[in-house]
Amino acid sequence: MDKLPKIALPAVFIIIVLVILISKSAITIGSGEAGVLYRTFGDGVVTDEPPLGEGFHLVAPWNKVFVYEVRQQEVFEKMQVLSSNGLEIKLDASAWFEPKYEALGKLHQEKGEAYVQRVLLPTIRSAARSVVGRYTPEQLYSSKRDAIQAEIYEETKKIVDGQYIQLNEVLVRDVTLPPTIKEAIERKLKQEQESLEYEFRLITADKEAQRQIIEAQGKADANRILSASLTDKILQDKGIEATLKLAESPNAKVIVVGSGESGLPIILGNN
Q1: SS3 breakdown of the chain: % helix, strand, coil, rounded to 5?
Q2: In this structure, what is the dihedral angle of CA atoms 193, 198, 204, 205, given to the nearest 10 degrees?
Q3: How many of the other CB atoms lie within 10 Å of CB of 207?
Q4: What is the 3-state secondary structure (H, E, C) of 11-79?
Q5: Mind telling me which residue stretches traverse the membrane in this protein (predicted)?
Q6: pLDDT tens-place string over residues 32-47
């Protein structure tokens, strides 16, 4: 009986040590995450193996695991940039991105966990300044926002692709001009719209005048052709046909044959 505590104490101690070791060694990677393994007594950050995927993992207690979110994320940025003529423009943009999964070890080793602040945001700012500097405030306000958005995306992607970051989209959410410039642009756009409306009315009126001229010309040509085709003989025949139809009418009338011009009958009636 005296020997039991001597055996039990080491066993309890071993169990406690094992529990501590297991708790230190157990790593759970959550949904949409991946882990970068750091070997303390090895070569440091593991870059030649895939990162640890979702789920439960056991690692040596003296090693470390750095967990990264690998699903698509969004970062917002408000910037002050200059247009081509030196006016200050406020730009509100966001970017959709995710770390490149297979290169997660390289990203951790070279850029660290703050890679968004160290790499992505400075690159977006630089690209935005470069792109916006090519356009006037009027272009930024009215017609070129989609082009600006596409150019910022292309310039940013060109850089961050080599920094182990996958850029999916850049969105220009708002462009704010100085109030006086905005009002001047709006007045100009309104005047241009009114000018376009006036030109449209002139074109419509001109087309209507052309239509009426063509219609009148057509009628004149038809009358000239008809007049040229009507001979005295045809007129006499038409007069006789009309006389015969009138003669058959029940209304009272007097027909004087051969007394009209060109020998056509004269019709006298009370109706």
Answers
A1: 55, 25, 20
A2: 170
A3: 10
A4: HHHHHHHHHHHHHHHEEEECCCEEEEEEECCCCEECCCCCCECCEEEECCCCCEEEEEECCCEEEEEEE
A5: 7-27
A6: 999 999 999 988 999 9
Q: Give the span between the Cα atoms of 86 and 102, in whole angstroms.
A: 43
Q: Which two tokens stand for residue 172?
A: 């220009």
Rg of the chain taking only CA atoms, in angstroms: 47
- 145 has a pLDDT exceeding 60: yes
d(CA 35, CA 64): 9
How far is it, in rounded angstroms, from Cα 139 to Cα 145? 8
Q: What are phi and psi of 259, to 5 degrees?
A: -105, -5
Decide if pLDDT at 183 tops 90. Answer: no
Could you tell me the two tokens for 159?
């850089």
The structure tokens 């230190």 sit at 24
Q: Find the mean pLDDT for residues 129-143.
A: 83
Q: Is the dihedral of CA 153, 158, 159, 161 positive or negative?
A: positive
**Tokens standing for 229?**
């085709």
pTM of the full structure: 0.61
DSSP type of residue 161: G
